[in-house]
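# nightly structure sweep
# worker-07 picked up a monomer target from the shared queue
# config: single-sequence mode, recycle default, output format = structure tokens
# input follows
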Amino acid sequence: MAVQKSKKSRSTRGMRRAHNALSAPALSIDAATGETHRRHHVSPDGYYKGRQVIIKKQVTEEENTEE
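# output follows
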């Protein structure tokens, strides 16, 4: 098991941890819909790079009342 030779100072510990902060995800705006989405991900509306790649099933009122 590795054992350190001498104590690491608070400064050295802090400098090492300075790179551990989380960054915010990169966001883009879709050209077709104007929807904000994560880069290289499909938007909630099903658009990717300005074209629709996923067609969502439209829920009608009749389907909601059946359940």
